[in-house]
Fold each of these.
Amino acid sequence: MFRSLAAVVGTNVRHAGQTFHMALIELKKTYASSSLGLVWAAVKPTLFILVYWFGIQFGIRGGKDDPGEPFLLWLIAGILPWFFISECLVQGGTSIRRHRHLVTKAVFPVATIPTITEISLFLVHLGLLVAATVVFAVTGRLTWAFLQIFYGAVCLFLLMWVLDLFFSALVVVSRDFEYFLKSAVQVLFWLSPILWRVDRIREYRWLYWIVRANPISYVIEVYRDAFFGRVCFVHTAQLACFWAEMIVGVLLACFVYKRLEGEFADIL
Amino acid sequence: MEAAVTVSHLSKQYKLYSSPLRRITDSLFGTKSYQEFTALDDIDLVFPKGEVIGILGKNGSGKSTLLKIITGVTRPTTGSVTVNGRIAAMLELTAGFDPELTGIENIYLKALSMGIPREDIKERLDDIISFADIGEHIHEPVRTYSSGMKSRLGFAVSVHVDPDILVVDEVLAVGDDVFRLKCIERMKQFRQQGKTILFVSHSLFTVKAFCTMGLWLKEGKQMAYGELGPVMRQYELFLKEEKARTVKVRRAEGKDAPVEKSDILAVRHVRLLNEIGEETDTFACGEDVTVAFEYEVKRPIDHLNFGITLRDAEERELFLSERRGQAQALHAEPGVHTMRITLKKPNLLNGRYLLSGELWDNDSTFYVGFCNKRPFTMVSESYLGSGVVRFEYEFQND
């Protein structure tokens, strides 16, 4: 298991430069044929935020805000990592299958393919993050605690790297996993505290802990804490839980990936 | 002899699974629930440095699998491959191009995916662009390219990797003749630089013209390897035998599929006749020349047409008969028919002439020649002028 981890991470580190350039080209590719180009990367999230804000703030809550935390801002802080997660699940999960020519027609470090896709999406995420930071700065909410955002971004990147590596290998073997991922996106969206507060389900003890143990919830909470000036490191139980999951996850993902890697060229 | 690639006891079995999920459980728990398909069976050889090795074999004989293993795209089941030098694979020229990106961006993309650092590509960019030779299109998205342009760009990138060993898998089938020549020229340069080329092509002609050694694979087995000449002879013999076998089998099965031209139409007794019906190949100037033959139609043909061509001794065309119209339709129902074509009083001068004639069906899919440059001679006792054709002329002197 540790050997698989070393092999996968080693490949990624050795080809870091190539991976980054490929990620830039992939980003270009996504928006190449539209005249507005990268603007679309901002338009879609903005529309989603406005629609959710409208539907929930006015439709469901009748226009009331929680004290000190305007719903719109609270929503932006939480949904920001989610945009990255949802894109990553589908695009990252299918990345190796989509780049099959790199597997079957070229000698390419295949273990970097999920990373390439993730980096190109992460660059978009960073752009959105800057925009959100501007919004929060204008409303005068940023404190030193905002520096925790770097920690949050690292957690987010690592979480999705693990999931992408794991699923991209499985999707190569069977497209069932691709369809699973596509349906899982919706499920995970509602199971994670993006539109609703974790506190609301505090009475349902087991449910509460399951939601809190969800690594996606953890990343979202870290982002919210950073934006709203709270210290996230006080939630030690969650922190330990997240990192335990990451350690197990990264070992498992690398192990599964390495076991299947040799077959990629024969399957695709 | 220095080895470029050493292949030792190489076998490759593909795993055929009834369900993809089995593959996952197999990989994780080391169980075996698949059927095997042997693509390569105990290949054992050395590709020496500086040779151009043509790999021969029919579809599915394992050629591509061997190249994929040598380039490192896929792994052998047993045995090993040792590669001595930098290897560049041209398994598919246009693989990896993104249709939305421009030619230049795709050069970077493809080169990056071949593991060339960005700085090196920048250096070679001008060379690549000038070799691809597609003009201003290089700034347009690749989706607007013709398939020939795409392959040119792909080839240009691949050969500028500067490899020690070049692996070329049936990539010259695309593109026009000029480009193909350019590619072959470039590969000859490689050869002169003492680099090794592994070459798969279904064009035996190209292989003969270009390769120094040959490897013949049949159903994953190494049938012959060595100097090109002997290997090529064995392979061609095998192809001929196999063709004869399929013809026999088809006939035995009474299949309707056309097997050979002679099963559809046979031409017999082609003769040249003079005015009094004697067979000859010498005619007096101004005498009718008749070509007569018998043909047997064995399967119905849609509109059988004919055409003749008359050439002089230096094979310049003097006359091609009308070939497009339906007016010259022959009897095409099954049975034996005779045919006579007469050149009426040809004004040909002394000398040797060549007559050719063909039959073909309505859409030109079926095509048979009934005589091919058949010589005949015109003689005259008196001097009629020199040249090829005699023109009647008058003169008036006031």
Amino acid sequence: MTVATRFKSGRTGTGDAYVSDHSGSPHARFMRLTSYALAPLGALSAWWILGLAGKSFDGVRAEIGRPIPALVLLAFGVVGMIHARKGMDDIIEDYVQDQTLKAWAFLANLWASRAIAALWTFAILLIAAPK
Amino acid sequence: MADADTDRLAARRPLSPHLTIFKPILTMMMSIAHRITGAGLYVGMALLTLFLLGAAIGGGAFSAVSWIASGFIGNLIVLMIVWAIFHHLLGGVRHAFWDRGLYMDPQGRELLAQGTLVGGILLTLLFYICKTLAS
């Protein structure tokens, strides 16, 4: 901004850097609210994830095939990836300065998080859903 | 001439505070660790998804994922995921305290930062010990 540039308020102006999209506090509140669910889900999921490495095929399926681990891991994966997508958006906003690259990064993040959540759900359902 | 003036003025301007400018302190390090563990969990979830897909499909797919998962690298990844979950979880708890205006004084925030660091490691250790005893 030079002296000649007129300041435009975030509330009234149409400038770039000075315009807020008013998403800050909803974003913070969303992260807080999802974290209330993710704290117990994460601790429980950590317990079952810990048991997975080194298990046999039948061992893994027996562990995840039980209803409560399956449901907890499912919820952790889905809520977690929504929370993670929003968190990664923050990181992109902070570190990716190029506007074109930034737009692509947001899009890649959106679809990567959706793909992970979807495949995660799909895999657990394949293992645990009643036949 | 104008350029030389500009350069001299620029050199006298205060620098914008940044990582290389600030003295590294624990609360700052824990803030950075919170972000790193968050991004790490994103990657960790992608890797776990591959593992679960292998277990869901079975056969050669499971052999492929379990070949990595049952080795040193797999165990290291699981250790990092479990620790990252606890570190990030406790980082969130710390923010929950701060949201309520608690522990914001110098001693309080230092205590919470230490609690995040030590608590994350202790909870990971505790889970590994309990898992070993349970199996």
